[in-house]
DNA sequence: GATGAATGAGCATTCATTCAT
DNA sequence: GATGAATGAATGCTCATTCAT
């Protein structure tokens, strides 16, 4: 087994253990025994327990970044709606494929320590900023109504996080396409029925 | 100092310490020294470190439950919109008044262990269910468009959590009224500008 | 058992263990089991293994300093010779009474780490400087021949260290008074027999 | 590079590393990386870390033995004094040429473990015995005054050790010839000025 | 012979909890 | 009830040595 393969297998073992037990309850012993290596071998590949945890997080956040493409608002297929749907779909698919890592990101990495908290905040900030820019571009094109783009970006991010958490981790079982559609329709048009939509919202 | 007062002062000390350092980094020593009591005294009031943490969480979730009133859709002041705004406002005010507890709930309690995770999930489930019921009532009255009420409830919950977290913990500075308005308008009417609202959302 | 007594009993246990096995081979487990306390208790009294070792050394060096009195060269009993003999005697008695600490000082503390080495060097420097000053005073009074007082001070220090080490640690069995006499006669008059004393030394 | 040359280069690397860091702080990794060989190769040349350390010590003590020649008291050049001076000079030159090994011998090898301690003691014993024999021969010829030859041998050995340690390791800067002269004059004639030499010493 | 990846025994330290006073 | 000294289980990490290639 070459160096890279072994490294990956340790990462996989760590992902599973961290995901199952959380950072503190996960012992290095758990990781190495699951990976089928000796204790010392672990430290040939990673400087310490913390480092492998961070690497798992970092590489997962990169994959999430990669799943989110900037929406091109110019007409023509795919439409803006379809591009948004594709983004949501890619992130959702990634989450469903990597439930363990989602658990790490949304549960076990939270509140571990100030440094990691800052890192997570920066990650979500970056995502929120991307959403915010999309909203701002939409506003420039008069597609999006006047609003506090930052705040709505955070709201959209929160909605997405909760749905992904529920779907990928907490056993909320729902049809992929259904989730994408509902999330987008909600994001774009809110919850109100037609006759009241404008009226009440303005109230 | 009578038993109840001492108990409360230990709880307050624990809240501050947990909020500052998180569950694991908070030592019983930190709590008792802040409370000005002896180490052993702590165990006269709480069975263990875990118990006081849970009690802080539990009593805070009760206060949140209390802040959320069932919306009465029958006409007449306050309007539905105002009732919703009042709910959001009360939760937000509570969060701003108890930033330490918000940090516990949204950060330090997350991922601590399976039991606590289940408890948190149940708490959010309950909130989501209340939102879901409101949506369902709205649907029955044709105020709310046809949708997956559960899913939208989760989305709304997530949006609220994120905004509260940012506002109460992560230093996102925003005007209280502004936040309530934007959150409600977004929830009710989404992000799209009028001419596109129905059209695109249906697409 | 009050705090001070327990502290002393731990110090005594540590002294014995360090003396028997040396710093590295001495395990905290050895110390606490000899002291009849729990592992954690050790850390209530000393910050770490290193700290207790240093404290043993420091307090012993203080006792050695105290054993060495400045020699008063003015005539009258006790004579200079007797004062010197008293100094040597006190240091020797201390060494014989605390063979374990002598072993620490002359064996186990040597080469442990740069910080400790510097500390030891400073200790011996101080002793050498005291001897050097005595020699210089003797030179001023024409009692001591012209010489490099620093160098002779180091030579005298080394002679003393070796004899103490042999006597207190390495099983060199010798009469106390004999050792004091021989050491002083050697220090004062060297090894040569009378007729050759001046002649050869000048050669 | 033939076997012997490689062996020597590993020894040289080990000498430097041990001398810099001491036995415990010196890692096999440090030695092999300095020697430019693989970790496993080290064990092809030496059974273990301890063995290479001992070999360094052993070969150095042999060189010291070789530097010390038995003093021939029969008249004729070189005189006894010159022969003694030559001995001291050779040892001193060796020490100055091999400061690293001196550090090993006088610092890092001390207190490592009982076996090594015994070895060092035996080495110094041998040197002391040589000095003792010289003194005894001197006594037989009435050159050396009556004294406990063993004790004075130890004192002389200690003086020499301290001066060599200071000069070769601890940065005590002194002229080679000066040191030899002072040490010999002190050894032969002590510290007292002429008029007091016999008188006081006898007191 | 040379390599260097793998091994795993070994250990200082922390801290929640207990209990004698 | 209050105290705080004592407890001891628990764990991340190091590093000398081995051995398959």
Summary tags:
homotetramer, 203 residues, mainly alpha, 2 domains, elongated, disordered C terminus, DNA-binding
Order of helix and strand elements from N to C terminus of chain A: HHHHHHHHHH
What structural category characterises the helix and strand content of chain A? mainly alpha
Report the average pLDDT across residues of chain A: 90
The number of strands of chain A is: 0
- Main beta sheet of chain A: strand number and arrangement? none
From the 3D coordinates, which CATH architecture of the largest domain in chain A would you assign? Orthogonal Bundle
Proportion of residues in helical segments of chain A: over 70%
The fraction of residues assigned to DSSP E strands of chain A is under 5%
Cα-based radius of gyration of chain A, to the nearest Å: 20 Å
| Total count of helical runs of at least 4 residues of chain A | 10
Shape of chain A: elongated
At the first level of CATH, the class of the largest domain in chain A is: Mainly Alpha
Most extensive interface between two protein chains, with residue counts: C-D, 61 and 61 residues
Poorly predicted ranges of chain A: 199-203
CATH topology of the largest domain in chain A: Tetracycline Repressor, domain 2
Could you say how many structural domains of chain A there are in total?
2
Oligomer: homotetramer
Cα distance spanning the termini of chain A: 66 Å
- CATH H-tier superfamily of the largest domain in chain A: Tetracycline Repressor, domain 2
């Amino acid at each position: 087994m070459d160096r890279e393969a072994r490294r990956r297998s340790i990462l996989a073992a760590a992902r599973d253990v961290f995901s199952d037990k959380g950072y503190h309850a996960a012992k290095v012993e758990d990781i190495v025994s699951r990976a089928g290596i000796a204790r010392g071998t672990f430290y040939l590949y990673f400087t310490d327990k913390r480092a492998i945890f961070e690497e798992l997080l970092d590489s997962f956040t990169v994959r999430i970044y990669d799943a989110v493409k900037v929406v091109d608002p110019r007409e023509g297929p795919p439409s803006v709606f379809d591009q948004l749907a594709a983004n949501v779909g890619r992130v959702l698919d990634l989450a469903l494929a990597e439930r363990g890592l989602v658990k790490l990101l949304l549960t076990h990495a939270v509140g571990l320590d100030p440094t990691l908290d800052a890192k997570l905040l920066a990650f979500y900030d970056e995502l929120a900023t991307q959403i915010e820019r999309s909203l701002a571009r939409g506003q420039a094109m008069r597609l999006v109504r006047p609003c506090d783009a930052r705040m709505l970006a955070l709201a959209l991010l929160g909605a997405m996080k909760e749905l992904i958490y529920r779907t990928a981790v907490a056993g909320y079982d729902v049809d992929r396409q259904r989730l994408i559609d509902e999330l987008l329709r909600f994001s774009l048009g809110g919850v109100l029925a037609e006759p009241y939509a404008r009226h009440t919202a303005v109230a």
